[in-house]
Amino acid sequence: MKQDATRNAAYTVDCEDYVHVVEFNPFESGDSGNLIAYGGNNFVVIGTCTFQEEEADIEGIQYKTLRTFHHGVRVDGIAWSPETRLNSLPPVIKFCTSAADMKIRLFTSDLQGKNEYKVLEGHTDFINGLVFDPKEGQEIASVSDDHTCRIWNLEGIQTAHFLLHSPGMSVCWHPEESFKLMVAEKNGTIRFYDLLAQQAILSLESEQIPLMSAHWCLKNTFKVGAVAGNDWLIWDITRSSYPQDKRPVHMDRACLFRWSTINENLFATTGYPGKMASQFQIHHLGHPQPILVGSVAVGSGLSWHRTLPLCAIGGDHKLLFWVTEM
After folding, report:
1. Same fold, 1-121+298-325 and 125-248
2. So which residues are the signal peptide here (predicted)?
3. Mean pLDDT across the stretch 188-199?
4. What pLDDT is recorded for position 297?
5. Which of 68, 189, 225, 249 is 20 to 30 A off residue 255, Cα-Cα?
6. In what order do the strands lie in the sheet with 292-296?
7. Do the Cβ atoms of 6 and 293 come closer than 8 Å?
8. Looking at the domain covering 125-248, what would its CATH class be?
């Protein structure tokens, strides 16, 4: 691999806690700054960040914390609601978390006096993925080691419940057709469900285990990507239920897979923390080698910026950001 592809983070932000998970808001929130949420052992922090790539008068990154929410238990996952608005009066911040106590918490804040959260209980093991329905934001889907995928309304009532054959690792909602849901299982099966009929309509097979993470490409919903074992895998669901492309990438087993939000050929993967560091890679389907390789002392979480070819990862008391070319 070319030496110049390996590089340190372009930007870092110091945090008061170890960062377990980080998520850029994938939805337009009506403000020039980009909302970002990160979770640690006790807190969820909501902030805005603007990068020099988008505003010429900024040097590097401009970051500002909007609010810190006491969480009381380790944050394992964060999902943004499309109802979040910074340009409304008062503003609306809405997101949910999954936590080490197997509960989902739904937070709502106006960044002033109103800060509420509701607890959604039902999972009996660790929650590995959660997501809001992207159209209306009125439902949350979650998958867990308890071999279930559950759909909840914002009152905390379960409106649907799918039994899986193995732990549920990832869940994604179709960006336009909100009755379609993708669920990836650790045994290598990825199923698409019709939420109106409440049944599976299509499935993909990775032929490799354990499948740790999968993601639906929102720029081209015929594409699905995942990591299983040491490899990344890409499917074209119009062609085959087996991967169209795959490549070994991480020595210590791959951990997360995320498509870029702006380019259907760009995606990122992370490896499990090895003896020294977790490896982070950005790949382009037109290139045989990763186009960027980074390393994080103890990295966790992975999220793409909504409008830039830029990735965030959580680390030891810091957020790290990598930028690549299109």
Report:
1. yes
2. none
3. 96
4. 74
5. 68
6. 254-259, 266-271, 278-284, 292-296
7. yes
8. mainly beta
